[in-house]
Amino acid sequence: MKILCPQCQHPLQQTAKHWHCEQQHHFDSAKQGYTNLLLVQHKRSKIPGDSADMVNARKRFLNLGLYQPLADAINKRVLKHTHTHSPLRIIDAGCGEGYYTQQLAQALQHAKVAADITGIDISKFAVKAAAGRSKDIQWFVANSSHIPVEDNSCDVLLSLFSPLPEAEFARVLKPNGLLIVASTGQQHLLQLREQLYEQVNSDVLNPCDKLAAQFSPSQQQNINYQLDLTSSAVISDLLCMTPHYWRASPEKKQQLSLLPQLRVNIDINLYGLQLISR
Questions:
Q1: Rounded Cα distance, 54 and 23, in Å
Q2: CA distances (Å), 186 to each of 190, 266, 268, in order?
Q3: Residue 44 pLDDT more than 70?
Q4: Which of 70, 80, 179, 190 has the fewest CB atoms inside 10 Å of its own CB, making it the most exposed?
Q5: How confident is the model at residue 45 (pLDDT cuts 50, 70, 90)?
Q6: What is the largest CA-CA distance in the chain?
Q7: How far apart are CA 249 and CA 275, in angstroms?
Q8: What is the structure's pLDDT at 85?
Q9: DSSP assignment, residue 40?
Q10: Runs of H (alpha helix) within the chain
Q11: By C-alpha distance, which of 141, 73, 83 is closest to 103?
Q12: Which burial class, exposed, middle or buried, applies to 33 when counting CB atoms under 10 A from its CB (0-12, 13-18, 19+)?
């Protein structure tokens, strides 16, 4: 899968320390194993995306294996798509700190499926952490609305609890490519939300509606179970890796931090979508 220069859209060539294109645009590779391709005009803020604290909390929480059922479901879905393509070209758009990307790479390696995997995220802190998980995956700081790859070059595209730029996803996916989307259900983290808000909002996003102009759903799976969080540190990490960390009042967050344990619902919808014929 060719990586494109975000400035001129020409293919980038990789050397030991940087990427460059024929127009002499250069992007240095960090010693940690990632490259920043995020242009200033593609930033949403001065320091976009998840903060270092959010990334570290998510890494600690996910490393406990508490969302392993979701990772397993994603891996199974991708493995079912491997019969038509080898090597499989995969992009994780909004890869965060790389937990699901790494899990997928390991599953494909175990199944002896060749894959070219790229993870992108707008947060430099997230991509830096992701690069520490695997050196076999290409990691880039980039905006998922400006994915730095060629048209029709991707077999599988992941968007897990991330923005859904429909036109960009349609651009990079092959005609028979697979888009996998994870979004939260009505009961997701209900008990946590009840601790934080006087009135809990039950509205949820249906990604199929948002993507309906160019994608049609082919599969849907609900992943539903309960977690027993047995320490205030784990509860705090869960809060810090969600948008509720920014929405809840300081008083409610302080009260939550004093809880020694909490049982929460996990309610996640996993969708497989295909491009509508062009």
A1: 37
A2: 8, 10, 9
A3: no
A4: 80
A5: low
A6: 58
A7: 41
A8: 58
A9: G
A10: 52-62, 68-79, 99-110, 124-131, 166-172, 190-196, 207-210, 232-240, 244-247, 250-257
A11: 73
A12: middle
